[in-house]
Amino acid sequence: MLDAVEIINAQTRTNFLNKFYINVKGKNIAIWGLSFKPNTDDIRFAASIDIIKALLQKNYHITVFDPVAMNNIKKIFQEKITYSDSAYNAVKNADALLILTEWNEFKQIDLRKVKDLMKTPLIFDGRNMYKPTTMKDLGFVYHSTGRQSV
Fold it and tell me: What are the UDP-glucose/GDP-mannose dehydrogenase C-terminal domain coordinates in residue numbering (predicted)?
């Protein structure tokens, strides 16, 4: 059973990244959420690790933010990525934002400010945190998991 879950998780990540590669034109990428679930610093089995590794192999510049898991990610990636002190600072001049953990902080964020800070208002939401219609109305190009992109 665990093998089947691991295969599905790997395929989901591959699909997520393929959609990302097709749609992103620039190389400056922000990532929100590094832990495998909210309210923990545990990064074991976190999607962020595989996704960051894949993006680094394609020479993306990555800026990350997580409320508590940053130190654990630093142990793996050290200076290969940039660590931000806030969700807002992470998205400054970003060509795209990937959301990988559904922290409450991200649910309550000022999305208009996020859009204004980004170079390109393009979000890949791996946790389906926002309503696609809301994101479209705010002016984002919004891709989420298992839902139609807007």
Answer: 30-132
